[in-house]
Design goal:
The longest helix has about 70 residues. The protein is globular, with a radius of gyration of 36 Å. It has 2 domains: about 70 residues; about 220 residues, NAD(P)-binding Rossmann-like Domain (Rossmann fold). The N terminus and C terminus are likely disordered. The chain has a 6-stranded mixed β-sheet with strand order 3-2-1-4-5-6, sandwiched between helices. The chain is built from 9 helices and 6 strands, in the order H-H-H-E-H-E-H-E-H-E-H-H-E-H-E. It is α/β, with parallel strands linked by helices and about 325 residues long. Helix 5 links the parallel strand 2 and strand 3. InterPro entries: IRX15/GXM/AGM. Pfam families: IRX15_IRX15L_GXM. This is Polysaccharide biosynthesis domain-containing protein.
């Protein structure tokens, strides 16, 4: 009896061991299958995500390209904006002829990079007419900049701290002439300029923009203590001859309020009569086309660094 019982125990033990082995094999196979499934799904999920991202990028690029291609303002819309702006009753606005003359240049050259010195009643018009390009405004009045920006979405404006005075403009021009081969030279990096007429405190990236058109309609020159447009005209003359602006080709420069002495003297000195577009503009608007490069010590042909400015007084009232 004892022998028979021992045999039964051995058989039970062997059967239990087989079940453990089978269970272990099953668990191992299940774990391996789960692991392989995880690897497979991870790989295909990553591939699908990458494909989707690539498709989205291509789609976005295509959309952006389509948007860019159709971003030019339609001519009837352009003309309608000019018409209503030139016939408006807004106070302190430009004359009809000035608005149309500036708009004609924007139509010919735009959309592009437009730099405007001064904020005024026409600022939303210039922004709209240059639709598809970049328009930047510079103004002496920090509060006016902050007032207009939220009221005109897309308007990019910066305030400028001018240190010049209209009453000093003759002395400033004489000093610039005397240092035309040094601090006030025609081709230079304005960021590091020590010329008293240079504007060197703008956001740095603005000096690297290739400006197609520059409109000078500021700062103010109402009275002897106003900053006057000496710095904006000089800075424009240097920008047009230097860096990215010079590299991209000629720059159209428009000087408003050209009937006044400061604008005439400074334009003659730095923008040059030989660069003025004949038959363009109006009595109160001058149009220049400035090309890059040129002599290192002269803005205009035949300039003499020892020449003195004319000191004929002229009334600035009404500007």
């Amino acid at each position: 009896m004892k022998s028979h019982g021992s045999r039964d125990k051995l058989q039970a033990t062997a059967s239990s061991s087989q079940r453990r082995v089978l269970l272990l094999v099953f668990v191992s196979c299940f774990a391996l299958a789960t692991f392989l499934t995880f690897i497979y799904n991870t790989y295909h999920f990553a591939s699908a995500s990458a494909s989707a991202s690539a498709s989205a990028s291509v789609s976005a690029s295509g959309s952006a390209a389509s948007a860019g291609a159709g971003s030019v303002l339609p001519l009837p819309v352009f003309d309608a904006l000019v018409h209503y702006a030139s016939t408006s009753n807004a106070t302190h606005r430009m004359t009809d002829t000035d608005i149309r003359a500036i708009s004609a240049v924007l139509r010919d050259r735009g959309p592009g990079n437009l730099l405007v010195f001064g904020l005024g009643a026409e600022s939303p018009l210039w922004l709209a007419l240059n639709h598809g390009g970049r328009t930047v405004f510079l103004d002496e009045n920090e509060f006016y900049v902050k007032y207009l920006e939220p009221r005109h979405p897309g308007l990019e404006a910066y305030d400028v701290s001018y240190t010049t005075k209209v009453r000093d403009f003759h002395d400033l021009v004489d000093a610039a002439r005397a240092s035309r081969a040094a601090e006030c030279r025609p081709v230079q990096n304005l960021l590091f300029s020590e010329c008293r007429l240079a504007i060197n405190d703008l956001p740095n990236e603005l000096y690297d923009v290739a400006w197609d058109i520059i409109l000078i309609d500021g700062p103010s020159g109402w009275n002897p203590t106003s900053p006057g447009r000496m710095p904006s005209i000089f800075t424009t003359a240097v920008l047009a001859r230097t860096g990215a602006t010079a590299a991209k080709g000629p720059t159209d420069v428009l000087v408003h309020d050209f009937q006044f002495e400061v604008e005439q003297v400074l334009s003659k000195e730095f923008l040059c009569d030989e660069n003025r577009v004949a038959g363009s503009g109006t009595p109160s608007l001058a149009h220049f086309v400035i090309r890059g490069g040129g002599p290192r010590d002269a803005f205009c042909s035949g300039q003499d660094s020892t020449a003195a400015t004319s000191r004929t007084p002229q009334d600035k009232t009404g500007k």
